[in-house]
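Entry 14. Structure prediction run on the chain below.
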Amino acid sequence: MSEKFRIEKDSLGEYRVPENAWYGIQTARAVDNFPISGRRPDPDFIIAHVRIKRAAASANRAAGWLDDKLADAIIRAADAVIDGQYHNQFVVDRFQAGAGTSHNMNTNEVLANLANAALGGRLGAYSPVHPNDHVNMGQSTNDTIPSAIRLAALAKLPRLLTAIHAMADGYARIADEEQDTIKSGRTHLQDAVPTTIGREFAAYAWTLRHCARHLEASGEPLCETGLGGSAAGTGLNTSPGYTQRVAEELARLTGEPIRPAENLAAQMQSMADLQHLSNAIRQVALELTRISNDMRLLASGPRTGLAEVLLPAVQPGSSIMPGKVNPVMFEMLNQVCYQVLGQDFAIACMTQAGQLELNVMMPALGSALFDAMDWLSNALNAVSVKNLGGLRVDRERCRDYAHRSVGLATLLNTSIGYAKAAEVAKESEQSGRPVRELVKEKGLMTTEAFDRLVEQAAREGNIEHNQGK
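Output returned:
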């Protein structure tokens, strides 16, 4: 059965719109113009943009520019979308007209049609509520889209922070349980001085919390909105007091300390605050890549690798090798981190690609940022639940490696000097005999005394402090 259409008209002429669509002609044109990725707008971005429309209606009513009946209808329509309804009516591809004009009109048309339906009007007639004259009153794509990107990022930030802290808590818990588990340290992937699993994992926890602090700080500048700047930061066609009123209303709607930017034009030209957020996300991804690689090394084996930690098996590891189990969760996290780094590079390119009064790369910039935040949040949560929660440490293997490590010769530095200690290390490496045996054989100390030295060296330091609690 063929789809039915209604005919709408804009400045370019007539165009077909699906008969029951809540969007209108400009959205329909954009759908046909941009069959690019097949990806529709991010849900947080949809809600953020609609909140701006709601706040604008409230501000314009307070100024006497929008009568109560129309303002109430727009606000009710906005509330329905904010509550999760009609998201399937936001249909413009993420790669679209520069600056996001297509998405802005998609929102204006959906809200206008919903408002008109509530007031007894029909789809596509745009009476009494018009997408441009009423829903978009006092606004421009140029100030609403960058503001919506910032609001959407603010909505995602707590989820990402929660996921980072959950992983940090997982590492801290293991660090506390294994604070006395001695193991061989490794530098340059070679034997080094003894340490503990507790110290090693506490460092992971501290690093993640440190990254989270930087990430959290990057959210504060996003609370500055350029709304009221209209097309070029001039405030053209805005009602008296609009800038302050719309910021106050958004603060109420979001629970964030939204405030007018000191320079409204700059909020359209510059995406530096979004780049700053992306930089902080990149830092998290870089550290997670390193930690993931460490976990894959520590879990390598089970017979011919390190196998100091045992990761829960979540799926068979091979289609040909029976019984094989791979560290798939950390492999997945690695892949996500690399994708996040790619998104950060794209954001950097688009941040510098603005010209004069506007950055027209905003739709793709926002999409890249949203993807990075969502992917990383989801990946962190999956790893924390599927792997860290059930991770086990092979304490005997760790202890065996520690006592067979050539790096133990370092403990002799203060008693026999570096040169003689190096000779012991070399002999241990060439003969395969443990340092503790050579120490006893050479009469340097008893094996019991050497073992105590190893234990003391591995456990030096305050594990509680190192966890960064």
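Residues 144-187+194-229+262-394 form a domain with the Fumarase C; Chain A, domain 2 fold (CATH 1.20.200.10).
Filed with the rest of this week's runs.
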